[in-house]
Design brief:
about 140 residues, mainly alpha
């Protein structure tokens, strides 16, 4: 399996993270320009942003939690040559779940749907880690 095939889901997730960063910046700059918040109110990272800007910010910051385990696993799977078709298929399911989670989080923010998307991604990632650990420990 090619490195490009293995890394494509990771690249999509990174692209989404940068897209959220741009969306967050636009939302925050807009809030500052409209006078909804003053620079001094948020200079130390306080959560004084208007709700919409905070919602996007929360979604962006969430990309540095569970996805970090995905990034590490992908790198380890490449290094140890354990990135097979199942790994890539599960990686795509994880990434699609993260995209759904981010979409819900940054739009309707309906918690039940957001949680379901999160849970799918978390369980898929857990399965990926279990498979990887078993393969490594079993010497497969």
């Amino acid at each position: 399996m090619s490195i490009a095939t293995i890394l494509l889901p990771l690249f999509v997730l990174v692209l989404m993270t940068f897209a959220l960063m741009v969306l967050m910046a636009r939302s925050r700059i807009g809030a500052l320009k409209r006078g909804e918040v003053k620079m001094g109110d948020v200079a130390l990272g306080q959560s004084n942003w208007p709700p919409r800007a905070q919602q996007i910010s929360n979604c962006y910051h969430n990309q540095f939690q569970l996805p970090v385990l995905f990034y590490v696993l992908t790198i380890l799977a490449i290094i140890t040559r354990h990135a097979d078709y199942l790994f890539v298929a599960l990686a795509w399911v994880f990434v699609l779940a993260r995209i759904a989670h981010a979409y819900i989080h940054s739009t309707t923010n309906y918690v039940r749907h957001r949680f379901n998307a999160f849970l799918v991604g978390a369980l898929v990632l857990l399965v990926m880690w279990i498979i990887f650990a078993v393969q490594i420990l079993a010497g497969v």
